[in-house]
Amino acid sequence: MNEPTTYRPPETADTVHYPTPIPAAAPLMPVQSGHIPAVQSIVLPDGRVVTGYAIDPAKPEPAAVKPVVSRAAVNVALGGVGFLAVCGGLLMLTTFIAALAALIQQLVILAAVVFGGFIAVQVLGSSRGGTTVNIRKAVIKRNHFHG
Fold first, then answer.
1. Is 0.70 topped by the overall pTM?
2. C-alpha span between 14 and 16 (Å, rounded)
3. Tens of pLDDT along 121-132?
4. 39 beta partners
5. Three-class secondary structure of residue 33 per DSSP
6. CA–CA separation, 79 and 73 (whole Å)
7. Of 39, 109, 117, 130, which residue is 20 to 30 A from 90 by alpha carbon distance?
8. Cα-flanking dihedrals φ and ψ of residue 19, to 5°?
9. Could you give the 3-state DSSP secondary structure of residue 112?
């Protein structure tokens, strides 16, 4: 039982495992017209040399074409047309109201004439106490009636 024992430390306690980075794919760079541009070097006024690829300058977007007539002028013109339309509509409305008033006035006058004639016939037509003249039997002689 007294066998010598050797102590062996566990591997996991002494060994440290670090993650291995996966090389990422290089980002895609836009290449102009399907070929690699030539490398150019420029000497700056202070003597430094700058080397790089020649890139075509970015073309600015075309400026928005201005309309021939300004928006303010269009708005003023549309406002004037709208004002004229409203004035014309009010004139037509006024004319319609005046014509309607004249029609009502004529209908009232017509009703007064018809009703007045009806009353006149009732008052003047009933001659119960007066003399009735039968024109068929009357003989007219020197502007006198003889019956």
1. no
2. 7
3. 877 776 555 555
4. 53
5. helix
6. 10
7. 109
8. -70, 145
9. helix
